[in-house]
Design a protein that fits this description.
Elements (H helix, E strand, L loop, with lengths): L1 E9 L4 E10 L2 E11 L6 E6 L4 E6 L8 H15 L3 E10 L10 E2 L2 H9 L8 H14 L5 E5 H5 L4 H5 L4 H5 L9 H14 L6
Helix pairs in contact: 1-3
Length: 202
């Protein structure tokens, strides 16, 4: 039986995913990707293979709202059923903020989720849904290892003075910093540039 890791980006009305087969130690091969969209109004599931060719689609019913747990459970179950002898062994989640506590990916547990929930006040547009996705998956598949990866991690590489410059003490004490967004994407881009244009990123 082959093993797979599935990565989620849970939003307010959709759950996007990408699945990867564990080929060897530290080696992942893309299998497929897709999303459950319009979760509150007209929930639909679509999946495509690694080349972008449509694989499957499903409609939950117009006017039938579904929650994150239903969406995530459907995706994981679909992956294991649609791919012969495939077992999802771990999941990753895109989360906007790791706060001052997490500079790198972290294994998710109840304490981690509680801390990430406390950061919602700083980023109410995405953070609550990122956390809700991880919590919903834990409820649907107890014991499945989950890891949170943070957009803010990339920006933690800035000098500390750049992270705290001109912020009032009460803001710093509350855990806010000059952290940007889309850090996971920037980290990927900068890594690719090192491989393709090494002299330009020295």
């Amino acid at each position: 039986m082959s093993e797979a890791i599935i990565v989620f980006n849970a939003g307010s009305t959709s759950v996007k995913f990408g699945a990867y087969e564990v080929v060897g130690k530290g080696t992942l091969t893309p299998i497929n990707h897709g999303e459950v969209s319009d979760m509150q109004t007209d929930p639909q599931f679509v999946a495509k293979n690694s080349a972008g060719k449509p694989l499957d689609a499903h409609e939950f019913g117009k006017g039938r709202a579904i929650n994150h747990r239903t969406a995530l459970h459907f995706v994981v179950t679909w992956l294991e059923k649609s791919t012969a002898s495939m077992k999802v062994v771990a999941a990753g989640h895109r989360v906007v903020l790791g706060g001052t506590r997490f500079e790198a990916p972290v294994l998710i547990d109840a304490d981690v989720l509680a801390y990430l929930d406390s950061l919602v006040v700083m980023e109410p547009s995405h953070q609550p849904y990122n956390v809700r996705g991880a919590r919903a998956l834990a409820e649907a598949f107890p014991g499945l290892p989950q890891v949170a990866c943070f957009d803010s991690s990339f920006h933690r590489t800035m000098p500390e003075v750049a992270q705290i410059y001109a912020l009032p003490k009460e803001v710093l004490d509350a855990g806010a910093r000059h952290w940007g967004y889309h850090g996971i994407s920037y980290d990927y881009i900068s890594g690719r540039l090192r491989n393709t244009r090494p002299k330009r990123v020295e």
